Amino acid sequence: MDSYPTYCDPFYRMPTELAVRVERGDGDAEVIVVMVEKCPEGGCKPYLGGYKARATGKTFHHASTQFGSRKRVVKDTSNLRSRDTQTVQLRTVRAQTRRECGTQMERRGLHLSTDADAPCSVGAYVTADEYWARRAACVVTMQRYWRGHAARARVWGLRQRRWQRTVAARQRAAAAAAAEDRAREREARRRRHPRTAADFELLYNELAAWCAAEAARAAELPEGPPRRAAMAALLRKETRLLQTIEGLKRAAARAGAGARVARTLDLMARPKRWELRDGSAARVATEWTARAAELAALYRALAAPLVGAAERLDVLLHVKWAVRGFECRLTRELVELLDREADLLSRGRAARSMAGLRLRACGLFLRFIETPDFNPEASRFLRAPPSHQHLAVAASKQLVGIAC
């Protein structure tokens, strides 16, 4: 077995006495015997400080733990409440100040300068009662000024809050009036330019209520020509109003169809978008979205008002190039209409005479765009469910005549 060094021998046992050599300042040395007080068997020394090694888990105590417990010395406090401790002892202490000063009276043979002297006069004698009365008067004055300031601040705060309430009430009244005006304008706009089914239902209800009131007023007339004339006039006016409402309904249907077509074309041409891992959005334009964007631009140019013959012929030529690659009954009819319009333009015909022709061409080109075989992005907007998509595609093919 290898021998351990002295400082780390695990079998070392400390003796009960230790000889300590102490060297003195004069060069002499003295050996002092130190008695070691060991912990009894099975006991444990109290931990009074030290450190613990994390690697081995051993606890090392400070050297003070090798000595016995120290008894606390109780201080004698019996003389703290005696006459001697409560009696002030006076003593005289002399101090030398940094600046010397003194008083010198003028006398014979000594001249003192009076340039820096200041005359002093003795005032009236003030008693303690007068002093405290004057202080009380000053305190009352201060309180008076402070109470006046607090009262003015409170009144100003009340005025501010009242003004704020007034401004808030005015703002609420203005907002209510503006909301009422907007509601009135909205109701008037619903009657002048109806767009939804609720708007037309409102017009029909108001017309029915007006007709009922006029019929009741006409019923109060006596029997004979006056009543019949009033009922005939009411019938004519009701007929004109119904015709007006029907005209507004047709205009609203055309405007709604145009808005739906424009929204659908925009959705078809919109790039694909998805969210990345970092939370940002990615947008990619595929070949089908580019195809849908091209067709949407051609449709808008085809449906736009006529500006000039040269520009219109250029638009017609681009539309023919877009549909010529697909041979079917729809494309043949569309190309025929485009050629007919180009021939009429070359003959100098007025745009008013070609309104129906242009409307038919726009409708056929819109059907071309909405067909998935010509525009794959249109398959997302078919009304058939995804499980029956093939039926919808087959039906659209039969509709436009691709099979022929």
UniProtKB/TrEMBL annotation:
<keyword id="KW-0966">Cell projection</keyword>
<feature type="domain" description="IQ motif and ubiquitin-like">
    <location>
        <begin position="260"/>
        <end position="389"/>
    </location>
</feature>
<dbReference type="InterPro" id="IPR057887">
    <property type="entry name" value="IQUB_helical"/>
</dbReference>
<keyword id="KW-0282">Flagellum</keyword>
<protein>
    <submittedName>
        <fullName>Flagellar associated protein</fullName>
    </submittedName>
</protein>
<keyword id="KW-0969">Cilium</keyword>
<dbReference type="InterPro" id="IPR037695">
    <property type="entry name" value="IQUB"/>
</dbReference>
<dbReference type="Pfam" id="PF25805">
    <property type="entry name" value="IQUB"/>
</dbReference>
